[in-house]
Write a structure and sequence with these properties.
Layout: H1 3-13, H2 19-55, H3 59-73, H4 81-93, H5 100-111
Helix pairs in contact: 1-2, 3-4
């Protein structure tokens, strides 16, 4: 349910239905809010990482991006087996994290999208 429909249903329930209906809708609103907050926090973290790398290339930050992407892909190991292996190898060798150009090329070749301009 989207936000507008939910708020409209809440308004209609005030004084017309049992209070429990209103409070059920109220918990739905909190669910929407919490989901949005989590999304914004994730986006904020991504922006902070990109900002740090835009100021000065930091291999440790790039290596952390590899680790986080591996963790995300492990949720579907069967689909991303080759990508996980490539990311692990890159992390272990610590070569692609040493420069922006190498990192971006590796990321695009392995995952198919730019690590800073496109985000999945």
């Amino acid at each position: 349910m989207n936000r507008k429909e939910l708020l409209e249903e809440m308004r209609k329930s005030v004084g017309m239905q049992d209070p429990i209906v209103f409070f059920q809708k109220f918990t739905d609103v909190f669910t929407l809010l919490f989901d949005r907050i989590e999304s914004l926090e994730s986006e904020l973290h991504r922006v902070k990482v990109q900002t740090a790398l835009a100021i000065q290339w930091e291999p440790a930050v790039a290596a952390d991006m590899l680790v986080k992407e591996i963790a995300v892909m492990r949720q579907d190991k069967d689909t991303y087996h080759a990508e996980i292996t490539a990311l692990k190898q890159a992390y272990a060798e610590d070569k692609v994290t040493q420069s922006y150009a190498e990192f971006v090329k590796f990321w695009q070749d392995t995952l198919g999208y730019h690590p800073f301009l496109d985000y999945k």
